[in-house]
Each structure stands twice: as structure tokens, then as C-alpha cells.
Amino acid sequence: MKPKIFRGIIISFLICFPMSVFAESVSSMLIRYRGEARKTSAEFQEFSVERGKRFYLQAKASASGQISCATCHTVDPSQSGQTRAGKSIDPMAPAINPKRFADAAKVEKWFMRNCDDVLKRNCTAQEKGDFITYLVSIK
Amino acid sequence: MFWSQIVRVGLLGLAIGGTCLGLADSDEHEEKEHQGQRRAMAVASNPQYKAECASCHMLYPPGLLPARSWQAIMGGLKNHFGDNASLDEKTTVELTQFLVKNSADQSSLRRSQKIAQSIQDVPLRFTETAYFKRKHHEVGDEVWQRKKVASRANCVACHGRAEAGIFDEDEVRIPR
User: Fold this and answer.
1) Per the CB < 8 Å rule, is A10 touching B7?
2) Fewer CB atoms inside 10 A, N or C side of chain B?
3) What is the pLDDT of residues B100-142, one digit of tens each?
4) 3-class secondary-structure state, position B57
5) What mean pLDDT, rounded, does chain B reach?
6) CATH code for the structural domain at A3-137
7) Residue ranges of the domains in chain A?
8) Could you say which of A85, A89, A112 has the minimum Cβ distance to residue B151?
């Protein structure tokens, strides 16, 4: 009997552990960005899927007026993108690619690089939160 | 709670152990391959190098460029061929050391030595070296512009095992 129970524990653990890590890191990231956004803007209420989607797609806002997140990540975040050097980029939507937003340091590193590439400035906490909220909303 | 913690620690141990075994095995495999392939270049078997550099482009064997080129590239990551590829200072130092140690002018491999001897200046792109141009003089513009080739920097398009440091001519397959 005992080994059966033990195996049950292991199996349920294997299923639940990665999901709990994911949920924890996305929500804690959003809590942090929400706190920063409230500090910098009195009008900020909550992150928005709509604003995030616009931010992701809109090339007009970029420094060159020509590129957006979608240029490399494709207009459909559930699809794989491609870098300028021809390397495939795994989908941005965590529903399809659970590795997305699982590591806060990695997320910050890529915001730092890519916001500079596209906008020639850092992204605001609100932009980061909207961006993640939009991508998490994709099922 | 207590039991789940024990299970958690145990599984983590298993996962780490498994990963280490896997790495050891692949190192051995690569060494064997090297002995068989005298012209093969030192393989970039550094997990940090792969994680940080090969998310945007193919994993370039460090033996493609001399140490001074890698130092120049790693010193300018904020504008890396038009993209911001910044790393934290610790990672930058570690990866620079790795690249320098395995660079063309430090290599005991034939192809890397030939590349090192052919380079006088500090090229940032291997594709702009006389060595690369000489080796690819038969490749027409039309081929470079093919969608599946994408870029001169995309070695793997035609050299299927480029990331393993293998550029032998008889393995070249140019995509349509």
C-alpha cells in the first residue's frame, strides 16, 4: 500500500509544482510592477489587457516608427517568432509556453534589452504590467 | 507539509544529479568526436554561453575569431550589431574569459589556427574576414538572399553541424 501512496504524492507533486511556481512568479511580478506604477502615477488604477495588446502591436510608438514587440515575436503571441539572426523564439504566451515569466531576473533582463531596442528608453512599470497581463490573457 | 518538503528536496536532488550525468556524458561524446574530426573547431559547450548568447543567434564556436575580437564584442554589448545585448558585469567577465580562452589564436585546432593567421585587424564579424570571403567566393548573391539562409551569420543554414564546430565542405547542404 505504502509505495502506492508515495507514488501518488510524487505524481501530484510533479504536476502541481511547476504550475505553482509559475503562478507565484507572475503574480509577484505584477504586484511589484503595480506598486511601482502607483508610485509614479496617481491616475494608475489597474493593468489592462487592451493597453498591453496595443503596446505589443503598435510600431508607431517605437523610436524608428517601424518596429514593435510583434516584429520579432509575431502578431500572434501563441506562435513562435524569429530573431533578426534567424533564430526561432518560443511563443510569448505562457499558456502555450509555460517557461515564460517563470524567472523574474530573466524578465527584467529582456525588458532592459528590448525596450531599449524598440523604444530607445526603459519601459515603465505600467507598460511592463500591461504587457504581461495581455500575454497571460491569451489562452 | 513536512513530507512534501522532503519529497521536494529529494526530487530536486534527483533532477540536479540527472543533469550532471547528462552533461558529463555529452562532454565525453564531444571529445570523441573531436578526435575523429581534426578540422572540427572547439565546441562551445558552456551552458552559460548557450543561455546568454544563443537565444538570439546560433552558437558561434569561439574558435572563429581571435581573442581581441571577442574582447571588443563583449566590451560593446550595449550596441551589439544594432541590438542591446547587455549582460550583468559578472556574466560579461565570465563569458569574455571563456571566449578568449577558446578563441582562434589560443586554439590547437587546425581550422582555428588558419583563421587566426589570416586575420591582422580586429574584425567584429567573422563574415567580413578575408578567410570567410575566400571560402565562400563561389556562393552567389541569390543564395545569400534565400529566405532559409536569412543571413551570412546564420552558418547553420548550410553547415548543419556548425554549432558543433564542424564546417567540412562535404557536409554543406544549401537550402532551396
Assistant:
1) yes
2) N
3) 999 999 998 899 999 999 999 999 999 999 999 999 999 999 9
4) coil
5) 84
6) 1.10.760.10
7) 3-137
8) A85
